[in-house]
Amino acid sequence: MRFLIAEDDAALASFVRKGLEAEHYAVDVTGDGEQARAMAGEMDYDLLMLDLNLPRVDGVSILRHLRTRKPSMPILVLTSRNRVEDRVQCLDLGADDYMGKPFAFSELSARIRALLRRSHLPAASVLAVEDLKLDRVERKVERAGKRIELTSKEFGLLEYLMLNAGRRLTRAMIIEHVWNLSFDTGTNVIDVYVRKVDDGFGRRLIHTIRGVGYELSSRQDAV
Q1: Which residues, in sequence order, are bridge partners of residue 126?
Q2: Which of 207, 129, 180, 191 is nearest to 154 (CA)?
Q3: Residue spans of the chain under pLDDT 50
Q4: Per-residue model confidence as pLDDT tens digits over 119-144
Q5: Backbone torsions φ then ψ of 110, nearest 5 degrees
Q6: CA distances to 31, 52, 75, 85, 197 from 6, in Å
Q7: H-helix or E-strand containing 33?
């Protein structure tokens, strides 16, 4: 899942970003209101964390703008404005949750999980291919009932492959989606990361497609 943090306090944004990435989420950050409005409108984020005191375009205006265009995007207002009037205004405008600063990261994480449970259908929350299951909300991966421990990037890679199960993905597509980096044709980082899912199991699910990239599939004839 990919989140957008719209927060002009760079230190706070970095703190939240690191915490969320440790929980296997992909995170984009902007401290500019106009850019936040554009990014949230153009990209399909699974969650927006929105500060109200943003330069150029304030958070209330962004909230009002997005709710007419993306009514189903989960939005969590994260702000130092703790007046009842501010909470009521944002909730009436369509915010899904409102959290005041300062806050405990453990509570923020719990609120995010609650929002994701409400916003995703069960079929979209848990991805499954054969005996491989990935829980996008609880951030867990199991195969044949056995827990597989993955790093943040490994989880993001597997999630991307499972969301595109049966589709051939190029190395460039994977690198750009999961790592947000320019594609290096000499890298073998993907080859290293995909092994955990198949190592120790009799049936391969992640296939290397010669000259193309990768495919996660139950098919055994992929080459």
Answers
A1: 135
A2: 191
A3: 121-123
A4: 754 446 788 988 999 998 788 899 98
A5: -65, -40
A6: 6, 9, 11, 21, 34
A7: helix 33-42
